[in-house]
Amino acid sequence: MSRTRIVFAIIILVTLVAIGAIVLVQAINNLNDGNVITDSGDTPAATAVPEGTVLVTLASSNTKQNWLDQVVDNFNAAGKTTSSGQAIVVEVSHVTSGGSLNAILDGTSQPIAWSPGDQSWVDQANDAWRQRINKPIASESCQPTIYAPLGFAMWRPMAEQLGWPDTPISWDTIVALASDPEGWASYGRPEWGQFSFGHSHPAYANSGLLAMTSFVYGIAGKTDNLTPADIYSDKVQTAMQELEQNTSRYGRQAPALLDLMARQGTSYLHAAAAPESDVLRFNIERGDELTFPLVFIFPAGGTIWADHPYCILDNADWVDDDEAEAAAIFRDYLLARDQQELAIDNFLRPLDTSIPLRAPLSLENGTDPRVSPATVPPLPSPNADISAAIIDIFTINKRKATMLLVIDVSGSMEGEKIRTARAATAEFLSRLDANDEVGIMIFSDIVTLMEPPARVGDVVEGLTQRVNGLLASGNTALYEAVCQAVETIEKTQEDDIATGESRLYGIILLSDGEDTVGYVTENQMLATCLPSNAEADGIKIFPIAFGADADEAILQRIADATSGHMFTADPQSISNVYLSISAEQ
User: Fold this and answer.
1) Residue 42 is inside which H or E element, if any?
2) What's the pLDDT tens digit per position in 8-33?
3) Burial (Cβ within 10 Å: 0-12, 13-18, ≥19) of residue 294
């Protein structure tokens, strides 16, 4: 070979190596930058990596998002390898515990490792997996990663009125205050009115399930050996009914409740069940928005010290030996002292109690660092039977909802939009409790009340048939539809109040466009149809901006005015949006 050819070959080789290095760096950067949470964030998708690299996809409950993002960045920068020398890259997706469990079981999510908020979710996954292949989903026990204790978030002056931080505050205290017709007047503060409480839905949220588990233990007077018979006892059911009939807001995630407290102030919610970490984060990151600081209250008698287990799903057929080994290497890195100390900076408590607590875990920031598992006993995580019983009595005793579905059937909804809207709405109707109430209103050139709100068990079959027959045509009378929907629900609410019935009221508004009719103006709708002040027990509107042409700005204003929640959706995500609304009501 001539000298010229040798030189040319070397140049080509160097160029290929350089290109390969650039591709590898870009791939890793894409992994680190791709952690976006959406309404359908319980089905993380793996990213392709270069040959010779093992990708560990981790689905992690969102309570520890900030901490894990930092740990993953540090790990990926450290250049860790498997025993065979393959580079390891970790990609984390932040999910809800219940949503990720369902996604794993139905095959829409296939992570290598999974870290829900509590062992109870692991138990449910293992039970389901044993029914399939007679093995748990993970061959080894899932190891705890950090502590994120559950308790109450409350405005600091109100908590101090109850004796925080030195006086024990129990679930009995919360139930008694919630059901007391004198409200805060019993504590010498009549100007605060009736106590208002919120918690996330136990069927969808880790914080909701654990909060209700803590509640049941507290009311039953137990710290261990809870049985389904205890849960269905008259004492527990009576207390659950008293709490739920005075609960003003549910949700799919605890941070959404705290966000409402921040945006609406002390007159909206007085307290909400939440993890300690979320309360501290809101105080520090959003303190300028808060009327008063929030504090975290450990329920007297015991609480769930959620330990966020880390599971390597090696009994799943999508996990190979190299991926399982790489996931174990990352787990060990996660449990090392440096990463445990980093957890404190992210409002979490390290497993290692020899690590001294410091700010931000302080009284000044809203929590009591003197509390530990030794002073407030850890309650056992609920197993599958306990979880099922708790969700059941919650469903039995929860405050029932009255909802009006308001659906855009204008011409722009023709085709895939109307087809998926029909299917998702029918699915939503099937998910409602038989004793909820639901009605249907449609709008295009005119607004038509197809069915006023009525008991779900009596009307669901007929409504489903009518929804499945919806057609799209005409223009969009959006503003008039909002006004007529509010008028319809207000009349229902007035009738309920007259008969002494206490319910939650919501309007689900699905639209893919902006108002094109003009019978009612935007300003007229905002000024005369919507409430001037949002109330916890008021009518909430949940707009769904369906597609890119929806008027998101006005839909957001409608949601804000009623303390509702605006969602964006397309034909692929509409079902998940309806699921989120189910948790709200």
Assistant:
1) none
2) 344 344 333 333 433 333 333 333 33
3) buried
